Amino acid sequence: MPVRAVLWDLDDTLFDYTGSDRAGALRHLRAEGLLAAHGGEEAALERWRAVMETEFARFLAGEVGLLDHRRARARTFLGTPLLSDAEADAWFGRYIAHYEASWALFPDSVPVLEALAPLVRQAVLSNAATANQERKLAVLGIRESFEAVLCADELGHAKPAAEAFHGACKALGLTPGDVVHVGDKLDIDALGARDAGLRAVWLDRAGAGKGAGEEPPPGVRRIVSLAELPELLRGTIGFGAPSTIR
Ligand SMILES: [Mg+2]
């Protein structure tokens, strides 16, 4: 049974989130003259991430809103609890500008989107906020590749919940067995998609150069580059009928 649609994860699958975040934080900390004070690039980045993770956990737990989350990151990183809201907002705003100036796709993203365009329908399924992802896709110049951008905030469910995958399939008017999900997280993306009845492709970029790597779990196809995807989908007979992939 041919695949009718590819449902894409975005961050760290098509969009180099980790690289963009690193480059943006470095540009910001350099521009603010903060690298030396924090022991150089790697130490400063480590602190940047530690502060982000701690504060983001509070945001996810609903303890603080987005604005206060950003202010807390500025105050904690700088070690200046008395920094005014306006100063903290300005500091974080300068980081956002550097981050967005660092946005980049992976080199294999546009080629695969173009190669698949005549063959299958394509849409995005992301756990991030719709407004953020819509804007990101527009800035990166690939919004036109997708007939829909389906995100957890509007679906009401986040991956790996089956409801998130089913909501996306329903939005496309397809059954899960007609749809391939491609994502970088083995648990959230690949296993979630498999367990929801979709065909699951796990993009293991870190596995490139490591040889065959570990066998992926049953029902999950592993690729190390998006360049492998068209071939995998063309050979969809070998990709596995829904009855065997479950
Ligand atoms: Mg991802």
UniProtKB/TrEMBL annotation:
Query: Organism's domain of life?
Result: Bacteria
Alphabetically sorted, this entry's keywords are: Hydrolase, Magnesium
InterPro entries annotated for this entry?
HAD-like_hydrolase, HAD-like_sf, HAD-SF_hydro_IA, HAD_sf
Please give the Gene3D superfamilies that the UniProt record associates with this protein: 1.20.120.1600, HAD superfamily/HAD-like
Molecular function as annotated in GO: hydrolase activity
What EC identifiers does the entry list? 3.1.3.-
Q: Which cofactor does it need?
A: Mg(2+)
Its EC top class is hydrolase
Kindly provide the name given to this protein in its UniProt entry. HAD family hydrolase
Look up and give the organism this protein is from.
Answer: Streptomyces mooreae
In the record, what lineage is assigned to the organism producing the protein? Bacteria, Bacillati, Actinomycetota, Actinomycetes, Kitasatosporales
